[in-house]
Amino acid sequence: MTEKLELRWPGKDDGYALVRDERTGDPVRVPHEEIQPRLLIEQARYGDADAENMLIRGENLFALKSLLAAGFAGKIRLVYIDPPFNTGQTFSHYDDGLELSLYLTMMRDRLILLRELLAEDGSIYVHLDANANAHLRILLDEVFGNVNYQNEIIWQRTSAHSDTHRYGINFDTVLFFSRGEGFVWVGGHHEYSTTHKAKYKPDKDGRLFADFDLTAAGLRNGVTGKPWRGFDPGTKGRHWAYDPAKLDVMDADGRIHWPRSGKGFPRLKKYLEEMPGVPLQAIWTDIPPVNSQAKERLPFDTQKPEALLDRIIRASSNQGDWVLDCFAGSGTTGAVAQKLGRKWIMAELGEQAETVALPRMRKLVAGEEQAVLSGLGGFGYYVLGEPLVVADPKLKVPIINPNYDNGLLVQAVCLQEGFAQTGDPDFHGRSGQTYAHVTETCVTKTYLNRLTRRLSEGEALTVYCLKSSPGLTAPRNVKIKKIPRDLRVRYESR
User: Does residue 174 contact residue 126 with C-beta atoms inside 8 Å?
Assistant: First the structure.
């Protein structure tokens, strides 16, 4: 038996997931097999009609399952989440004082699905505070692997303050993990300090430059060890960092700073305007929080500044990449992704999906004269459909949700069983060389023959039906599945 290092807690392996009741927001324990993907039902569309961006209102565990079923597995380049911190504080939009074991179960199940959604070169950033950081670091190690841990970022969110019996806590942490080894990394820089800029002096054209050594340590016998323009690096126990031909080109381009006396050595000019800035480090003190006077302030207690998301999205994605936030809150992730030309998906359970995030994104896309990239200047607003299979309220046996007509039934079964919808009147879905047909009609031999005549060699068919003729047999390349008995998930209580 192979043992592994892992975090243990009561109820970790009891087969239950934690979801939020979509009416009350209260946490509810549900068997894993009852977590069904739901239909993503578009309620409205704003801006560019072809935009793929999505704002989803609903429980994020169902939303993530639905995105996987809809074909987003391995498509997301960057995940940023700002989940409840399990602090015991009650905000106006979140009650995040979950018992620790329930909190860990909640996060574990979502992290597993987020990993499935991430591209092989994708990354995840998890925003936390001191109450949740230690537990989530171990949990992320377990889900993503310790080898994929990249950074713990410290964000100083407030200035110094006094805590009565301990050191003041004025920071959050952001844990940065990759999906695998070859993850996208653009990185970033911030502006040089005033002290550093003072080291640069004006050139003849007014541009500011600083000069740097053109030599490197050690003697060489080749051309880089020979004198150039009368200057011999060997006298200093060094050699030229570039070969003479390259030095000639650099001089012709005005990149060599010549000494005014014969005592110095020529040096390399680097212009301030061409310098990227200071490489970002893991402690961020230059991004202020969203306070009551901030222009971007919205009626949401845990709103994060756009500058924070701007830095993360720029560092770990490129234009056109998918960015996902399933604890969307006020919608900062989508707003910044939109401005930076990324495609985005946000999910949010609470009413703030409609009262905060939706108005914010509508205003943003309406105010854009032109999207950064074609096809990104809009979004769809979605809600989660009802579960396909539910329990009969009296008999407590699984039945098809009575609110599903045949059109919705086709969509739901194809989503549930992993078939891409085709629009074909007979072959409603397709997965590889296998087609799906969904019907509420009783399937007879004649009915089945009509479908199988359309199959080509090497193709197969699965028929999903409520009932079929007694004793009906099917060809070897045809399966008949009864709804809901033969579906891959159990029912949900209603």
Answer: yes
Query: pTM higher than 0.90, yes or no?
Result: no
Which residues, at least 6 apart from 394, have a Cβ–Cβ distance to it below 8 Å?
none
Domains of the chain: 16-187+286-384 (3.40.50.150), 194-274 (no CATH), 389-482 (3.40.1350)
List 53's β-bridge partners, or say none.
none
List all residues 6 or more positions away from 379 whose beta carbon is below 8 Å from its beta carbon.
45, 46, 47, 51, 53, 54, 55, 334, 338, 344, 361, 365
HSE of 15 in the Cβ direction (CA atoms, 13 Å)? 3
- Strand, helix or coil at 294? coil
Exposure string for 145-164, b = 16+ CB within 10 A, e = fewer: eeebebeebebbbeeeeeee
Per the structure block, which two tokens stand in for 167? 């050191």
**Rounded distance between C-alpha atoms, residue 365 and residue 339, angstroms:** 9
Q: In which element (H, E) is residue 325 found?
A: strand 322-325
Q: Where in 10-57 does DSSP place strands (E)?
A: 16-20, 27-31, 40-47, 54-57
pLDDT digits (tens, 9 = 90+) for 321-355: 999 999 999 999 999 999 999 999 999 987 889 99
Residue 93 and residue 82: Cα distance in Å, rounded? 14
pLDDT of residue 97: 54
N- to C-terminal Cα separation, the chain: 41
Question: Is residue 327 within 8 Å of 60, Cβ to Cβ?
Answer: yes
Output phi, psi for 433, to 5 deg: -100, 10
In the block, residue with structure tokens 């889900």: 143
Model pLDDT for residues 228-270, shown as the tens digit of each residue: 999 999 999 999 999 999 999 999 999 999 988 767 899 999 9
CA–CA dist 134, 140 (Å, integer): 10
Contact 397, 71 (CB under 8 A): no
**Strand 238-240 to 189-190 pairing:** unpaired
Tokens 């030309």, residue located:
341
* CA separation for the pair 113, 135 (Å, rounded): 19
The single residue listed with the structure tokens 């016998």 is 221
Written as six digits, the tokens of 89 are 């504080």
> 107 in helix, strand or coil?
helix
Longest dimension (CA), the chain: 105
